[in-house]
Amino acid sequence: MTHALEVQMRHRPALDPGFLPAVLWNRAYHARVRATGGSVELGIALVRQDGTTFTHKTRILPPTAAHSELNRKYVERLVKLLLWQKGGCTILIKGCDPVARMLAAAYTEKGLRSFDRDLVGRRMFGQFIEVKAVRGKLPPAHETSQPLGRHLDGCRIGFDLGGSDRKCAAVVDGKVVFSDEVVWNPYFEKDPFYHFQGINDTLRRAAAHLPRIDGIGGSAAGVYVNNEPRVGSLYRGIAEPDFDRHIRGIFHALRSWWGGVPFDVVNDGEVTALAGSMSMKANAVLGYSMGTSVAAGYVTRDGNITSWLNELAFVPIDYRDDAPADEWSGDIGCGVQYFSQQAVNRLLPAAGIEVPAEMPIAERLVQVQKLMAQGDPRARKIYETIGTCYGYAIAHYADFYDIENMLVLGRVTSGEGGEVILAGARQVLKDEFPALADKIRLRTPDEKDKRHGQAIAAASLPVASGARATGDRKALHKGRRSLRERR
């Protein structure tokens, strides 16, 4: 059980004192491993169908009954992190067959990680997750990285699709001439055309401020391959047959509608990281957006993006046994419950702030922001709590990412509350992890970029070509006809 390890922490979140930082629990576990004879080296490999392979090595306590619970917790949480950070559909385990059997049971149809088995395995990579014990050598790591965006020539549209709003920016030679934000509620919408109409409305708003369109770039929550969404929280309400028929090709249809101009869409986390890299003129960036959910992306030291998932909303950062559960995956202690609008909503009762039961979560955040602006100490406690948890989470992420720069943005960080969050995180790093405090530059963009930074960076994604859209009926007729055929 977790109480079998002594975990000491210098800061406790004001409204969530039971919080047990993953980074401190892991360090206590590693200390136990070093102090215990007979520890075992464990090798882990995540493999995709295309041969992409990620490897990780660690050590665990001797696989005896006395250590089984600690080993189970450590390895299961570690693999969960690696799965949502890197992605794969086959998990290979070398060094401990009991651990392989434990994981295999977790990733069955009715196992503890059945959600991950289906969403990461089947939906993202084409097969249910399978766990195998390996007696010989693990396959070598095989990863790829590539440049992303940074093209700002010409007239461009950038857009960002969140769970509570759609943002857009019209950009001319790198300068923003218009930006806009529209509230929408896509999560449980059953009609695929709702998404098409909403996105197209956003594009029209930006296009009205441009003489022509040389390229359109977008970011959105979810996993995207070749401009096709494979899975995403935005589309939870769409039945799978409708998703496959209409949503997977939605951005191809939009490109046709807009005359075939260069059109690129990627995960919003990657654009967050790109925005950070561009604004800071630096690499080794972990971009982190606190919005309806959590979006993250990573830019390497070489300025490239990787083929990693970076879906940190699902990565556990709280190891207590009764941590709050994610309403989508059902798992406990995951980042979305600590660094999003859902986190603010979860902390309202502890802060003593009452809101109408029918008030949407996005409006509850607005209410907290208003209270914060008025100097309400209850609202400040919410942001202080998020900041403390975030400081420990950053240290946890730093065990798996090479980070020198962090850009933190998203609706939750708007206003004075964002500064409170960063101040709390910096204090935790300074007191608990001084080496990281010296290494990692933690910052947030200015207020305008907080709300529209991702849409602006998204505009830089496509490489402009001769294909241009002017918005007139003749130029877009072919695209409209294509859409009718798809429907």
Describe this structure in words.
The chain has 487 residues and is of the alpha/beta class. It has 2 domains: 121 residues, no CATH class; 343 residues, ATPase, nucleotide binding domain (Nucleotidyltransferase, domain 5), CATH 3.30.420.40. It is built from 15 helices and 17 strands. The strands form 5 sheets. A 5-stranded mixed beta sheet has the order 8-7-6-9-12, sandwiched between helices. The chain has a 4-stranded mixed beta sheet with strand order 2-1-3-4, with helices on one face. The C terminus is likely disordered.
* Structural class assignment: alpha/beta
**Whole-angstrom Rg:** 23 Å
CATH class of the largest domain: Alpha Beta
Q: How does the major sheet shape up?
A: 5 strands, mixed
What proportion of the residues form beta strands (DSSP E)? 15-25%
Do you know the CATH topology of the largest domain? Nucleotidyltransferase, domain 5
Sheet with the most strands: spatial strand order: 8-7-6-9-12
Query: What fraction, in percent, of the residue positions are helical?
Result: 25-40%
Number of strands: 17
Number of helices in the DSSP assignment? 15
Mean pLDDT: 91
The CA-CA distance between the termini, in Å, is 53 Å
How would the global form be characterised? globular
- The name of the CATH architecture of the largest domain is 2-Layer Sandwich
Tally of separate domains: 2
